[in-house]
Amino acid sequence: MSALYPLLIIAVVLGIVLNLAGGLIWVERRLLALWQDRYGPNRVGPFGLGQVVADSVKLFTKEDWIPPFADKPVFVLAPAVVVATSLLAFAVIPFAAGFVIADLSVGILFLLAASSLGVYSVVLAGWSSNNKYALLGGLRATAQMLSYEVFMGLSLMGVVIMAGSFRLGDIVEAQRHMWYVVPQFAGFVMFLIAGVAETRRLPFDLAESESELIAGFHSEYSGMKFGMFFVGEYIGVILISAMLTLCYFGGWLGPVLPGPVWFGLKTMAFICLFILFRAALPRPRFDQLMSWGWKVLLPLALLNLLVTGAAVLLLR
Amino acid sequence: MPTSAAENYFPVLLQILIAMAVAGGMVGGSFFLGHKVRNRIKDMPYESGMVPTGDARGRFSVKFYLVGMLFILFDIEAIFLYPWVVVFHELKMLAFIEMVLFIVFVLAGFFYIWKKGVLNWAAEGNDEGKDAVRILSHDQHAA
After folding, report:
1. Residue B141: inside a domain, yes or no?
2. pLDDT at B43 > cutoff 80
3. Which domain holds residue B67?
4. What would the pLDDT profile of B71-126 be if each residue is shown by its tens digit?
5. pLDDT confidence of residue A270
6. pLDDT per residue over A207-266, tens digit each?
7. Do A220 and B89 touch (CB under 8 A)?
8. Within a domain: residue B143?
9. Interface probe, candidates B1, B10, B13, B15, chain A, greatest A C-beta count within 10 A
10. pTM value?
11. How many whole angstroms separate alpha carbon A309 and alpha carbon A154?
12. Contact A142, A123 (CB under 8 A)
């Protein structure tokens, strides 16, 4: 019995996350089309929703091509790593009070650790492909993700100081009177920027910038292995949106509607924000991205932590 | 409410196993469902239609290596701050003063590497960007 309950929750959570990740491909194409004044996919089924099914059938039945010049075991491992690690992070995300796979006291640390394991997938993919563009994309992605990871954790620590706990449930409950986005606005903005960089989404998709690197680290990937990088990317977007909701926007707290609905609505709003970034912002140069991260955001994250600490000390 | 550590982390273990199964199932599924046709042209690295020369096992810029080193240094410093934020409520002023000192030392090192030019990513040929390379090969051109 006690082993069945977590299995049930895992099944529900994975069902939601994987279906949402597939559906987001459709959502993203429709929203981008809306913002760019065109239709997007609207032929297959109602509102073009059948496009999701058609795409996944197509990807699954494509040739499973492994390049003869590649490092074959690593080449196959890389897309599996990106999906497995980003799914792993959902173990500590509470969808409502008590509805969580594992209510760990080190929740935020687990999240940061699991999400940063995703770096391995781009390193392995970029190196094992034995393709010059893939190598360049993989190197860029690694440098970018490592740099932004440093202050991604630091920007969250302001929230942890205020809540006094790493447990995500406690952090949400501590926001009953005021969402942390108000006192921690600087931390919120930094975490949002780091989150976009960490998921390698536009405008920070320099790892795959198609106008210069073909597709970056996944140039040599095709079929479902290529699709897995996309699924992994969308799971990453859902994860960062869920973290933003939990840490800064009160998670499942809200009037009238039940908790999971509020959590879903807030998370979906952030996912749409991610897509709006893609539609609206141009891509910076790589040196601009790196110096922005190290020279501006890292000192600011440390400063934010100190100011928050001082404020908590003075106001208590 | 689970109490012991084993009970707490058992669902995480389940999640790891199931996440690996999902990922393995996706790779395996496409392996069995896809048809296979191979030819010589398909088996070449994709370089926008050009015939590739050499392979990708060449050398790359030392700056990426420096980023790796900086990441290890600064992420460890960040990790020192993580336990501090949870014991902060008990230790109060003492913890705050000590952490101000710690962050001042971190920032001193940070401005040192900044002034050394490690954080400059400007292109080759631009004087700024060469500083990062000079640090690792500082006496090669000295003579």
Report:
1. no
2. no
3. 5-136
4. 888 888 888 888 888 888 888 788 888 888 988 988 898 889 888 877 777 655 45
5. 92
6. 777 777 777 788 888 888 888 888 888 999 999 999 999 889 888 888 888 878 888 899
7. no
8. no
9. B15
10. 0.87
11. 13
12. yes
Q: Nearest 5 degrees, angle CA A41-CA A46-CA A52?
A: 55
Among B47, B71, B89, the residue with its CB nearest the CB of A132 is B47
Decide if A223 contacts A63 (C-beta within 8 A).
yes
Domain total in chain B: 1
**Contact at 8 Å (CB) between A102 and A92?**
yes
CA B131/CA A233 separation, integer angstroms: 35
Q: Is the separation of the CB atoms in B84 and B101 below 8 Å?
A: no
Contact A83 B43 (CB under 8 A): no
Question: Which residues of chain A are modeled with pLDDT < 50?
Answer: 1
Q: Report whether the peptide linkage leading into residue A299 is cis, meaning its omega lies within 30 degrees of zero.
A: no
Give contacts of B100 with chain A, Cβ < 8 Å. Answer: 306
Q: The CATH number of the domain where B53 resides is what?
A: 1.20.58.1610
Interface test with A, best of B14, B30, B40 (most A CBs within 10 A): B30
| Structure-token pair, residue A260 | 């999971």
Q: Which amino acid is at A192?
A: L
**Residues 187-246 in A contacting B (C-alpha not used; CB under 8 Å):** 214, 219-220, 223-225, 227-228, 231
For residue B142, being part of any structural domain is answered with no
Within 8 A of A110 by CB-CB distance, chain B residues are 12
Confirm whether the ipTM is greater than 0.95: no
A125 touches A75 (CB < 8 A):
yes
pLDDT at A191: 92
For chain A, domain boundaries:
63-315
